[in-house]
Amino acid sequence: MSTVRQAHVRALAKINLVLRVLHRRPDGYHELRTIYQTVSLADSLEFEFQPSRLSSIHLDSDPPIPDNLVLRAAEAIMESAAIRGRVRVRLIKRIPAGAGLGGGSSDAAAVLLTLPVLAGRSLPLEELLLLAAQLGSDVPFFLLGGTALGVGRGEEVYPLPDWGRLDCLVVVPEVKISTPEAYEALSRKLTPERTPFIIRGFQSVAWAAAMGAPLGEASSAPGNDFEAVVFERFRQLERLKRRMERLRPVRVGLTGSGSGLFGLFRSRRERENAGARLGGGHWIFAGRLVSRAEYWRMWRRWLAPHIDGSRRWPPQSRYGP
Ligand code: C5P
Questions:
Q1: Ligand 1 pocket residue status of 180, Cβ below 6 Å
Q2: Residue 13, helix vs strand vs coil
């Protein structure tokens, strides 16, 4: 009997510091420009892998989720990297669904990072990115983490310098928003004439971010194009954003197509004061932004018993194929 290899990892949530939508493409997706950022809110995944001629995947999810992206990611990576063995995953969800926090996408990326390491396999980064993009537009970002630029349908990601050590509040009201429906509603408002202005506005924020962001400057620029359509339909979200603005955050905005809102603060104290003033009635998470260096360090720590000594990213297995 071969031994069971175990790893306990976390799948971090993301916020979109900026999210601008340009137009609907012939493939039905929307061309966008975004700045992604990992935050310290996370799901937990416990993996067990046992090499075996027969493959099986067992997922125990709390709470259960239909059509779980973890299963699809495991099937995809096992097929592409020729991984054979028995896989068990225990998933504990903490990231709220339907909130624009990328929970399912991050879980999927966690599978793509972990299983090859446990199985002694490796895929070239290009292939891993392709698999990730097939699973969902936000999945490739979680192979990178930190602050990142997303273009195309969001699946084409490039590293950006960190936005800095900021604390954050993530507030999720009792409203679930369907991403395809939000895109549909936004699509009706998009006009080709606006595109150059959106791109220039986005460039100015991305440049400011890359130059170590005078945050004040960047924060005055337009944030998330979904706010127009989502706030029209859910007035309580707009009211919540206005209340959060009065707490003097560095930046506040909707993440993804909502319904989550984030506020960034310069210190833990400012964040705690803001959280106390915001009061109850919503799901609130108090945490901080997670830089890429930290994200990579976390991953190396979670996979430590199973990775080789190299500094390569993504982490490489110490087991032979
Ligand atoms: O790629 P993902 O599966 O996360 O996308 C979910 C849905 O969101 C798509 O089916 C599409 O309706 C919409 N979407 C879009 N444009 C994007 C990303 C997502 O229209 N850039």
A1: yes
A2: strand
Q: How far apart are CA 104 and CA 279, in angstroms?
A: 28
The burial of 235, by beta-carbon neighbours within 10 Å (0-12 exposed, 13-18 middle, 19 or more buried), is given as exposed
Q: Rounded to the nearest whole angstrom, what is the distance from the C-alpha of residue 137 to the centroid of ligand 1?
A: 7
Q: What pTM, to 2 d.p., does this model score?
A: 0.96
- Closest-CA residue, ligand 1 atom 21, reads 153
Confirm or reject: Cβ of 63 under 6 Å from ligand 1. no
Q: Is 153 in the pocket of ligand 1 (CB under 6 A)?
A: yes
Measured distance CA(41)–CA(96) in Å, rounded: 10
Residue found by looking up tokens 């707490």 in the block: 247
Whole-angstrom Cα Rg for the chain: 20
Long-range contacts of 25-32 (CB under 8 A, 24+ apart): 25/153, 29/137, 29/153, 30/153, 30/183, 30/186, 30/187, 31/152, 31/153, 32/150, 32/151, 32/152, 32/153, 32/154
Compute the distance from residue 29 Cα to the ligand 1 centre, in Å. 6
Look at residues 135, 80, 83 and name the one whose alpha carbon lies nearest to residue 108.
135
pLDDT at 210 over 80: no
- Over residues 213-250, the pLDDT tens digits come to 645 445 556 689 999 999 999 999 999 999 999 999 98
Cis omega (within 30 of 0) for bond into 220: no
Closest atom of ligand 1 to 257 CA is 8
Question: Angle, nearest 10°, between helix axes 235-245 and 268-278?
Answer: 140
Residue 14 near residue 37 (C-beta atoms within 8 A): yes
154 lines ligand 1 (CB under 6 A): yes
CA distance linking residue 145 with residue 183, whole number of Å: 24
Q: Which amino acid is at 137?
A: S
